Amino acid sequence: MASTSSGAVDVKNPSNPTVPTPSGSNDDGGAPPTAPTSEKVPDDSSKLRTFLSILRKFVGVADIASVRFSLPAQLLEPTPNLEYWGYLDRPETFISIGDSDDPLERMLAVLRFWFTKDLKYVKGKPCKPYNSALGEFFRCNWEVEAPAPPVRIPISSKEPTSSSASSSTFASATSEPVTTASNKPITVSYLTEQTSHHPPVSAFFISCPAKGISARGYDQLSAKFTGTSIRVTPGAHNLGIFVTLHERGEEEYQLTHPAAHLGGILRGSLNVSVADSCFMTCPKTKLKVILHYLEDGWLGRVQNKVEGVIYQYDPETDKRTRIKDVPAADVVARIEGSWMDKVYFTLTGSSDKHLLTDLAPLNPIPKIVPPPDAQLPTESRRFWAGVTAAIHAREFSRATALKQELEEKQRVKASERREKGGEYRPRFFQGVVTPVGRPELSEEGREALRRAQGGDWGGLAEEGTLGS
Predict the structure, then answer these.
(1) CA–CA separation, 364 vs 324, rounded Å?
(2) DSSP letter string, 19-35
(3) What does the alpha-carbon distance between residue 208 and residue 143 come to, in Å, rounded to a whole number?
(4) CA distances from 97 to 278, 288, 290 (A)
């Protein structure tokens, strides 16, 4: 499931810290009123009624994410969209993907990362963060004490068809992490920028030089309101997450996103469900995953079931999208479980289930962000600081006014650029939506990540163009 700035609803990250107004900054779009008035906080039921009344205007619209409608502040979560979305709720599972010498174990590690990257869906509740402004960016680090242990295939189950000989006991995501040789935390750095406003697209890059791993992609979604729910699908420029293992000959994995539904709008109890398929491929190892999220019935308990297969495939000819179409002779492992609870794998030729990950004890890991005085005017927290402060103070009318003022300034700048025949160029990435699926960092983007790796948030000029 992927997201970018849009009118669609995302899911709240309960670990997200309060965003303060930077000291000495007046980037909130206007001065505070002389006597601010705290307003009544609307309850979830009231929010849903208001939200539904707005959504009803978009029944039949092919893609409400491209409409860019503006919501009143009381319906928003005080979180910038670019900060909210990062795919690293558990960064230790990401940096451990390349630790095993066994191709199948690496693919299982990719799956473990996949199921732990969006704990916000498991632990949180649906909400709507701010729309992102063109040129807005967000950067942060995670400090990982130790990577997750490599996913290991039990020795008795080793098969020469898909894996090399290595001996170790199996370790799930909830096992004790391995200790690094230096005992120093491993830094994972993240940079994302809104590169397009029509359609809304953001590019992201994740870097961990210490483990020789990176990931990149474009975030864009398409959303359609059916009258009872919102169906969210990846946009045309969103080809998934591309993970690269640089110390394994640039071994690359492509992870595509399934469609999701936001339901419960009429009942006043929002919920996220997934009933679609997604795929993970590695052309170098010739291993592919088909994951199928099963639809829950109208009756009975919600189970959020998922099933899948890992199989040997030909990257040049394979077009399979359904589990039942995969020949049994090509299957090396099967996946089953609940994407909100426990996920298991079973190796071909065995009936033993092995725990891949248990999500119950896991929570999102806090991120490290630049201090307020090091943030630039186009940086998410500083850009939205006035709106965020007003929402936290329950001054929703003021927050809405500040939000609308920021949005109007973006429209004016965009209009001025069009009149001059100018073309927007991202700051940290080389193209708006190119290269296809795999954004390339600009020189300034590489420098920003290099500095972030050393905990240096300075060195970037206060420049950049914001405009829708």
Answers:
(1) 35
(2) -PPPTT---SSSPPPSS
(3) 10
(4) 19, 15, 18
Structure confidence at residue 157 (pLDDT)? 57
Sign, Cα dihedral of 113, 9, 294, 240: negative
In angstroms, the Cα distances linking 134 to 9, 58, 131, 199, 370 are 19, 24, 10, 11, 21
Residue 116 makes CB contacts below 8 A (sequence gap 6+) with: 89, 90, 93, 173, 357, 359, 362
Residues linked to residue 244 through DSSP beta bridges, in sequence order = 214, 252
How far apart, in whole angstroms, are the C-alpha atoms of residue 412 and residue 419?
A: 11
Q: What are phi and psi of 99, to 5 degrees?
A: -70, -30
User: Could you give the CA distance from residue 349 to residue 346 in angstroms, rounded to a whole number?
Assistant: 9
Cis amide linkage into residue 91, ω under 30° from 0: no
Cα 111 from Cα 357, distance rounded (Å) = 9
84: alpha, beta or left? (left if phi > 0; alpha if psi -120 to 50): alpha
- Reading the block at residue 89, the tokens are 């709720």
Amino acid identity of residue 181, one-letter, is A
Tell the residue number behind the tokens 């001065």, with chain if given. 31
3-class SS of residue 106: helix
Query: pLDDT tens digits for the chain (468 residues)?
Result: 554 444 433 333 333 433 333 333 333 333 444 445 666 666 656 666 666 666 666 666 767 776 666 677 778 889 999 998 889 999 999 999 999 999 999 999 999 999 999 898 788 776 788 999 999 999 999 999 999 999 999 866 554 444 333 333 344 444 444 445 567 899 999 999 999 988 999 999 999 999 999 999 999 999 888 877 888 899 999 999 999 999 999 999 999 999 998 877 766 667 788 999 999 999 999 999 999 999 876 555 668 999 999 999 999 999 999 999 999 999 999 999 999 999 999 999 999 999 999 999 999 999 999 999 999 999 999 999 999 999 999 999 999 999 999 999 988 988 898 888 888 999 999 999 999 999 999 999 999 999 999 999 998 988 654 544
Q: Which residues contact 203 (CB under 8 A, 6 or more apart)?
A: 192, 193, 195, 216, 217, 218, 219, 426, 428, 429, 439
Distance CA 151, CA 405 (A): 50
The structure tokens 């959504």 sit at 55
Paired sense of beta strands 287-293 and 305-312, if any: antiparallel
The answer to whether the beta carbons of residues 155 and 126 sit under 8 Å apart is: no
